[in-house]
């Protein structure tokens, strides 16, 4: 084997540097445009082929006053008909409902803006849960769950009634006890009433504390959405109410959506994207062309110097054309400056350049032969 000629080594170095730069640029581009790893309303199935889901286009967005709604995004909440349940459900996916809700039963005021699904009955708003973008793929199903809605229970009215029943029972017992007492003991009865009042007060305080405890550990309404893939682009995304449990604590919905179909995962930062793949293939192709061409020219055509480059005359022609074009442009620009120097360079340069290039070739040939021997 001959040691590599200086010109070839130089050329390879330049190519490698160019290719390395291109790849580096591509990778730095992908890292700058990277998104945070946890994106709400987006999920990748960990099993199987790693199906990727992105439900964000289904989220109804709030359009600020006077602005145009973004194309393709819904701007109204979804309504699921309740049928026999008696109320319709208003909901949004992965985001609070667009319509502002107020006076939500059993929820703090600062959480009203987080309500993602609710229903109204007798003028009261019951939340089914707060916004949550935690989309979970389970096998072929895609599931979204909201929790922390209004307290469970059939309705506020009914639970109040129950509480009154207990209270009535207690007072009734007290009257029964009273009847056993003799009728004329008025004073005793009065003092007893006072005692009972105090006891009542104590009991009320205790009740209040108990109520507070209860509020903390109270079960709250939740909603579970199961998404089904519907490839028909003409059917809009729609949610249907499936049912609830007897406690009216957990609500189930089925959602048909185009976006619940698994799609190809977009380019992840850190991996090789299509742009870099193209750059790498292009670089390898150029390398093969140059190295293969040089090998052929040297061994078969016995070319030396710059003529070892594949299709030297073609590339040299293109190069001289570019140089001529540049010269003409610069000289015509120079002619605008009143000095007439441009013409000189135009007439003098081509022969001179050719001369110098021939000399260069001769020099390289000489060096090459010295290396070969
Ligand atoms: C629920 O929606 C349907 C259709 O939009 C409507 O006919 C019905 O009156 C609504 N029910 C209630 C309780 O609002
Ligand atoms: C409610 O929404 C706000 C943003 O709008 C968020 O910062 C906050 O964590 C949410 N609260 C709950 C309990 O989800």
Automatic annotation (TrEMBL):
Residues 39-263 form the MRH domain. It comes from the Eukaryota. The chain crosses the membrane at residues 277-297, 309-329. Residues 175-217 are annotated as: Disordered. GO terms for biological process: vacuolar transport. Residues 1-24 form the signal peptide. It is found in: Endomembrane system. One of its GO terms (cellular component) is Golgi membrane. The keyword Membrane applies. Keywords: Disulfide bond, Glycoprotein, Membrane, Receptor, Signal, Transmembrane, Transmembrane helix, Transport. Residues 185-194, 203-216 have a biased composition (Basic and acidic residues). PANTHER family: MANNOSE 6-PHOSPHATE RECEPTOR-LIKE PROTEIN 1 (PTHR15071:SF0), MANNOSE-6-PHOSPHATE RECEPTOR FAMILY MEMBER (PTHR15071). This is Mannose-6-phosphate receptor binding domain-containing protein.
């Amino acid at each position: 084997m001959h040691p590599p000629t200086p010109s070839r080594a130089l050329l390879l170095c330049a190519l490698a540097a160019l290719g390395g730069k291109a790849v580096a640029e591509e990778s730095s581009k992908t890292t700058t445009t990277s998104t945070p790893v946890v994106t709400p309303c987006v999920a990748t199935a960990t099993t199987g082929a790693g199906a990727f889901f992105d439900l964000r286009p289904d989220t109804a967005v709030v359009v600020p006053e006077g602005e145009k709604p973004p194309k393709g995004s819904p701007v109204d909440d979804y309504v699921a008909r309740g049928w026999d349940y008696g109320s319709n459900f208003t909901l949004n996916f992965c985001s609070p409902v667009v319509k502002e809700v107020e006076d939500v039963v059993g929820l703090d005021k600062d959480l009203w803006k987080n309500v993602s699904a609710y229903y109204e009955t007798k003028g009261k708003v019951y939340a089914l849960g707060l916004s949550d973008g935690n989309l979970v793929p389970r096998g072929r199903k895609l599931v979204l769950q909201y929790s922390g809605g209004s307290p469970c229970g059939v309705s506020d009215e009914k639970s109040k009634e129950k509480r009154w029943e207990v209270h009535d029972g207690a007072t009734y017992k007290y009257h029964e006890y009273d009847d056993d007492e003799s009728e004329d003991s008025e004073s005793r009865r009065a003092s007893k009433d006072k005692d009972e009042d105090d006891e009542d007060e104590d009991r009320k305080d205790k009740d209040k504390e108990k109520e507070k405890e209860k509020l903390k550990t109270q079960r709250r309404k939740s909603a579970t959405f199961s998404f089904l893939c519907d490839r028909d682009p003409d059917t809009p995304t729609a949610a249907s109410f499936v049912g609830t449990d007897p406690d009216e604590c957990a609500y189930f919905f089925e959602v048909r959506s185009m976006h619940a179909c698994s799609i190809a995962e977009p380019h992840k930062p850190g991996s090789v994207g299509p742009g870099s793949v193209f750059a790498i293939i292009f670089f390898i192709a150029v390398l093969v062309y140059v190295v293969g061409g040089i090998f052929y020219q040297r061994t078969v055509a016995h070319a030396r110097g710059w003529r070892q480059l594949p299709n030297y005359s073609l590339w040299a022609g293109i190069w001289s054309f570019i140089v001529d074009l540049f010269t003409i442009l610069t000289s015509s620009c120079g002619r605008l400056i009143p000095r007439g120097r441009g013409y000189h360079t135009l007439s003098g340069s081509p022969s001179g350049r050719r001369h110098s290039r021939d000399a260069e070739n001769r020099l390289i040939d000489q060096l090459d032969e010295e290396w070969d021997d």
